[in-house]
Design goal:
mainly alpha; 49% helix; single chain
């Protein structure tokens, strides 16, 4: 597994790209639950914000589209579903807006 190898070679799980995203943001985009678990176990910051104030949970909720695995992992790690990004919206608010009952229920477990 590429991420495991990179971490074993000393790569930083809190590294940021030019938009402020950390690897956990990309786990949500690409729906890679095993990657999210590995990064969290390696010290990734579940509260890291990108340039818009999006934390990895926001990205995972926005990209879920029926695959809730990364959302579940982030919630188990105590991500905050009520954190508001710079535009004033939280993952919980977005889940309610799109009327995704599964997401609303997952996020209510906080």
């Amino acid at each position: 597994d590429l991420i495991r190898s990179a971490l074993e070679l000393g790569e930083d799980p809190t590294w940021r790209d030019e938009s402020g995203r950390v690897p956990l943001h990309y786990c949500g985009i690409h729906k890679c639950a095993s990657c999210a678990e590995l990064l969290i176990q390696s010290g990734a910051d579940i509260n890291a914000e990108d340039q818009h104030g999006n934390q990895p949970l926001w990205t995972a909720v926005f990209e879920a589209r029926g695959d809730y695995s990364v959302v579940s992992i982030l919630m188990k790690a105590k991500a905050d579903p009520n954190h508001r990004k710079r535009y004033g919206r939280s993952p919980q608010m977005f889940a309610e807006q799109i009327m995704d009952a599964v997401l609303v229920k997952l996020l209510a477990l906080a």
